[in-house]
From TrEMBL:
Pfam families: DHH (PF01368), DHHA1 (PF02272), TrkA_N (PF02254). InterPro entries: DDH_dom (IPR001667), DHH_sf (IPR038763), DHHA1_dom (IPR003156), NAD(P)-bd_dom_sf (IPR036291), Oligoribo/pAp-PDE_c-di-AMP_PDE (IPR051319), RCK_N (IPR003148). Residues 151-293 form the DDH domain. This is DHHA1 domain-containing protein. Residues 353-441 form the DHHA1 domain. Residues 5-115 form the RCK N-terminal domain. Signal peptide: none annotated.
C-alpha cells in the first residue's frame, strides 16, 4: 500500500492529503487543520514540519514526502529536513505562494519535483485563453448552435481513425446539447474495422449516395475536409465543422476548421477536445481512439508527434485492453486468403518492386493486407496490388526502407485517369474501368498492362534499375483524394 507524509497543510497540502488511497500522515502547525483532518479519518500531528524531532515521531517511513505549506521559506526548510530524514523517499515540494527565484533554486536543488504556482497559473491561463483554449470554446459554441441533428461524416469506407473520430465528435456534440449521428458512405470491410465497430457496439449510420440528406440540420467532416472528396456528399454541401490531420490540397470552408498536419491521427485531435472539455471517454470510445492513433501512426512509427504519445498515455487507463487485443487479432476471411494466394501467384517482380493483379474481388480491404504481406518478400521494398470491384479498379501500395513517396507516385501515375493519394509509405487509388478498356478488348489484360506499366514507368523501374525517389525531397502534401482502405487514406 502506498504511503505519503504531508509536511505543512496549506491549500495545496490539504488537497494532496485527502486525495488518492494509501497510508497518509500530516504534520502541521495549524491546530484547527489537525482536528479537521482527524475528523475525516486522516492521521495528523500538530507540530513544526521543519523540526527533525517532530518527524522522528511519524509512525512509518513514507514512500513519498509532500511539502505543502503556503510559506515558501518554511517549505525550503522542510525540504532540507525531509531529504535528510527520508533519503529514499520521493520528495515533492510546492513552492508556496509568491515564491522568489531564490526559493525556487533552493527547492529544485533538493526536491525531486517542484511546483511553481506562477508557472502553473500561466499554463492554466494559456490553455484557456491561448490557441488551444480558443479553439475548444469555438468548437463548443459552433456545436451548441448547430441545427439538429448533426451528421458527423467520416471519409468513404472509414478506417479506425475516421470511425473513432466520428464517434468522439458525436459524443462531444451531444454533450454540447446537439443530437448527432456518426455516418459514413461505402463499406466497412476490413476485418479489424468490422471488429472495431461490432465489438465496441458503435451505432454508425450507413448513408446511400442517393439518400435524401435534408433530414440533417448540419454537417461535420472528420478525417477529411472537403465535401465530395473522399465522401459522396454533393460538392456544394455547407459544412459546419471540419477536423482533420491531413494537410489540405484546396481551401477548406466551414464555420469551424481544425486542420493540424503536425499530428499523426485525427483521433489525437479529438482526444484533446475531450480532455479540454472535461469529458471522460467511455471504455469503448477510449479503446477506439487509442486504436485509431495506433493504426494511423503504424504503432507510433510513422508521422508521429508528441501529441500522439500524450493522447495515447491519457487513453490507456480508460481503454479496454482485452477488447483492444481482440480488435487487433480478428478472424481472417477465406476470400482474404484466396486474394493473397492470387497476389503471390500473379506477382510481377522487377528489381525491388512487386506489382500484382488479383482480378475481380468482393473485399477491397484484402488488397491492403496483400500489399502488406508481399513486403515480406526478400529484397522487396515496394508493392502494388490491384483488383476490380464492379466497374472500378482499386489499387493498394506499400513501401518500406526507400526514399520513394508512394502518395505522390500514385498521383503521378494514376491521377489523370482516376483518384489517387496517400502517405509516403502507404497509398491507394481508384480508377474507372471504362477509362482503361472497351467491351471488345480483353479487359483483365488491359487493366493489368495499363496499371503495371504506368506504375513502373513512374518509378523509373526497368530491367536493371531499382525504384527511384519520387518527390522524396519535396514538400509532403498529404491527400484528401484517398483510397478507402484501412490504412491508405491516413
Amino acid at each position: 500500500m502506498p504511503s505519503r507524509l504531508v509536511l505543512g497543510c496549506g491549500s495545496v497540502g490539504r488537497r494532496l492529503a485527502v486525495a488518492g488511497n494509501g497510508r497518509v500522515h500530516v504534520v502541521t502547525t495549524d491546530e484547527h487543520r489537525v482536528e479537521t483532518l482527524r475528523s475525516d479519518g486522516i492521521a495528523a500531528t500538530r507540530g513544526d514540519p521543519t523540526d527533525p524531532d517532530v518527524l522522528a515521531e511519524v509512525p512509518f517511513d513514507p514512500e513519498t514526502v509532500i511539502v505543502g505549506s503556503d510559506d515558501p521559506a518554511r517549505n525550503r526548510a522542510a525540504v532540507r529536513v525531509a531529504a535528510e530524514r527520508y533519503p529514499d523517499a520521493r520528495l515533492f515540494a510546492f513552492a508556496g505562494r509568491a515564491p522568489t527565484d531564490a526559493d525556487m533554486t533552493a527547492l529544485t536543488a533538493v526536491a525531486d519535483d517542484v511546483v511553481d504556482p506562477r508557472a502553473e497559473i500561466s499554463e492554466f491561463l494559456m490553455e484557456r485563453v491561448g490557441d488551444a483554449g480558443l479553439r475548444t470554446r469555438r468548437l463548443k459554441r459552433v456545436l451548441r448552435n448547430a441545427a439538429a441533428p448533426l451528421a458527423v461524416i467520416a471519409h468513404d469506407n472509414p478506417d479506425p481513425d475516421a470511425i473513432a473520430s466520428a464517434v468522439a465528435l458525436k459524443h462531444v456534440a451531444e454533450r454540447a446539447g446537439t443530437p448527432a449521428e456518426a455516418c459514413y458512405f461505402g463499406d466497412i470491410n476490413h476485418q479489424e474495422n468490422r471488429a472495431l465497430v461490432n465489438l465496441l457496439e458503435f451505432e454508425l449510420t450507413e448513408l446511400d449516395p442517393d439518400e435524401d440528406l435534408s433530414r440533417f440540420g448540419s454537417v461535420a467532416l472528420v478525417d477529411h475536409s472537403r465535401p465530395g472528396v473522399n465522401d459522396q456528399l454533393p460538392e456544394d454541401t455547407e459544412v459546419d465543422v471540419v477536423i482533420d490531420h491531413h494537410p489540405p490540397r484546396a481551401p477548406v470552408e466551414a464555420r469551424f476548421v481544425d486542420l493540424r498536419s503536425d499530428v499523426g491521427a485525427t483521433s489525437t485531435l479529438l482526444t484533446g477536445y475531450l480532455r479540454k472539455l472535461g469529458i471522460e471517454p467511455t471504455p469503448s470510445l477510449a479503446t477506439a481512439l487509442l486504436f485509431g492513433i495506433q493504426v494511423d501512426t503504424r504503432d507510433f512509427s510513422r508521422e508521429v508527434a508528441g501529441e500522439d504519445f500524450d493522447a495515447a498515455a491519457y487513453l490507456v487507463p480508460h481503454a479496454d485492453a482485452a477488447m483492444l487485443e481482440r480488435i487487433e487479432s480478428p478472424s481472417v476471411s477465406v476470400e482474404t486468403y484466396e486474394i493473397l494466394a492470387r497476389a503471390i501467384t500473379a506477382r510481377d517482380v522487377r528489381e525491388d518492386v512487386v506489382t500484382t493483379y488479383v482480378g475481380d474481388i468482393g473485399d477491397r480491404d484484402a488488397l491492403a493486407q496483400a500489399a502488406d504481406q508481399l513486403l515480406g518478400l526478400e529484397g522487396v521494398t515496394t508493392t502494388l496490388v490491384f483488383g476490380t470491384v464492379d466497374d472500378t479498379v482499386f489499387v493498394s501500395a506499400r513501401a518500406r526502407g526507400t526514399d520513394l513517396d508512394l502518395g505522390e507516385a500514385l498521383r503521378e501515375a494514376f491521377g489523370q485517369i482516376g483518384s489517387a493519394g496517400g502517405h509516403a509509405d502507404m497509398a491507394g487509388a481508384q480508377i474507372p474501368v471504362g477509362g482503361l478498356a472497351d467491351d471488345e478488348e480483353d479487359t483483365d489484360e488491359v487493366i493489368r498492362g495499363v496499371i503495371t506499366d504506368r506504375f513502373f514507368e513512374t518509378l523509373g523501374v526497368g530491367e536493371n534499375t531499382a525504384a527511384r525517389a519520387v518527390y522524396a525531397d519535396g514538400e509532403y502534401l498529404g491527400t484528401l483524394d484517398r483510397s478507402p482502405e484501412r490504412g491508405d487514406g491516413d
